[in-house]
Amino acid sequence: MCRRTRGKESRAHAAMAKSSHLRVVYFFGGRSPQSRLAFDLAAARRPDYAWRFLALLTAQDRAAFREEQHAPAAILSFLNPCILEPWLLERAPAYNVHPGTPDFPGRDPWHFARYEGRREIGATLHRMTARVDAGEILDVLELEADPALPVAAMRETSMRAAIELLLRNLDAILDNRIHPRCQRSWRAGAKRSRKDFVAMCEIDPRMGDDEVARRIDAFPVPGYQNLYMRVGGQVFVYSPGDARSLAAAAASATGTPDKPRERLESGIEVRRGQPANQPAKQTRVA
Band of the pLDDT at 233, cuts 50, 70, 90? Predict the structure, then answer.
């Protein structure tokens, strides 16, 4: 079925599409099951095109891709972590499905929407430009999230909305008759990056309980210990099972290197010997 294309395999796919005389759609995705699902559904809906799934996740992948000859009929980007280069975007009409509303461009929109107390989530279809999440908005699917559900549920809802948005516009995209279905624009100054996400995962012992609670609520990812705190040159990792706030626990962890700390509350794990400027080993960026 749809395997990650790279090297000889990638060139073989291109040759196959050329010999079949079908126009080729480049579909850029990532490791997520949702990107593969979207690819499968789109390819099944429009079998009059040759479909090529591309996950350019490493420098080697990208170098091999540049060596090929490219003449796509259309370019689709869906949960794609790789920024497409301008020379490729000039080869064919290019569209991206962003898994968030226009108010939250960039990375991890559901996390930042939750942090800001927003209930609107969804997906945005837009033309691709050299700048990420900056092209003309063509369609938006917006839903209201249940505030009682965790942020992980907001993510899943956004992913489903992104697939639905792609499929309802697919024919118009491929038939070259796509036009804006709404009058929306990107929120100025709201674009977030991986660096922004990692920064929001750090808890400062001087933060108030409200701010700590907002971060604990908005930035967890199931299976990972995202939230952490630096104290005295060491990194303390928050565990979701703790019933007490990280701010309260920080009060017992503010000793100095020459003064022993009190026992940490349950849910705070000290990572001894890890430099305070390297918390990413404990942090997963979705």
Answer: confident
Is residue 114 assigned to a domain? Answer: yes
Say what angle helices 33-45 and 151-174 make with each other, to 10 degrees.
Answer: 30
Give the structural domain span for 153. 7-174
**What distance in Å separates the CA atoms of residue 239 and residue 270, rounded to the nearest whole number?**
11
Tell whether 122 and 209 lie within a shared domain: no
- CATH number where 124 lies: 3.40.50.170
User: Do the domain assignments include residue 190?
Assistant: no
Q: What is the pLDDT of residues 166-206, one digit of tens each?
A: 999 999 999 999 999 999 999 999 999 999 999 999 999 89
HEC sequence for the chain: CCCCCCHHHHHHHHHHHHHHCCCEEEEECCCCHHHHHHHHHHHHHCCCCEEEEECCCCHHHHHHHHCCCCCCCEEEEECCCCCCCHHHHCCCCEEEEECCCCCCCECCHHHHHHHCCCCEEEEEEEECCCCCCCCCEEEEEEEECCCCCCHHHHHHHHHHHHHHHHHHHHHHHHCCCCCCCCCCCCCCCCCECHHHHHHHCECCCCCCHHHHHHHHHHCCCCCCCCCEEEECCEEEEECCCCCCCHHHHHCCCCCCCCCCCCCCCCCEEEECCCCCCCHHHHCCCC
Q: Which amino acid is at 80?
A: N
103 and 243 fall within a common domain: no
Is the domain of 167 the same as that of 39?
yes
In 234-246, which positions are buried (b, 16+ CB within 10 angstroms) versus exposed (e)? bbbbbeeebeebb
